[in-house]
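Many groups now describe folds with learned vocabularies. In that spirit, our science desk offers one protein's residues alongside their backbone shape tokens.
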Amino acid sequence: MLCDHCGLNPATASLKQTINGQTRVMHLCRDCAEQLQLSNFFSHPFFNTSDLFSGFFQQPDSKNKAGTRRCPKCGATLHEIMSTGHLGCSGCIDAFGDELLPTIRKIHGNAVHTGKVPQTASVEIKTKRQIELLETELKKVVAEQNFEKAAELRDEINRLKG
């Protein structure tokens, strides 16, 4: 198979690109891949996630750059979290929340879990999640001035809290 870009050399790499739901595959020779500045993708056999995640996080300030502050539960440093993109444990959010929350909001659009509650979750967690959803709906119906529905939601929230 010849290179889709130059049509002269044998293709040694394939690049699959999906944009707005449309997928396009390009078969490229080594020269065209380098010319298109894609050589980094083809010269390294494994994708380095550390480089990816370190780009999301702001560089730590000088007191944290040495990694002196540690999570009391697992011992992870802010520098380690920022370079790998992985939290050591649930205590890392408590220890480094001020530094991590802006980035989490930037990546996910929110810093509060809004997905489904696992089937194995305790009744308290499920109830708390249901109350949160009802409170969100309550704010919406109050803004719409649907006070009858708001009263129903308020009563349901009070019942769940009680």
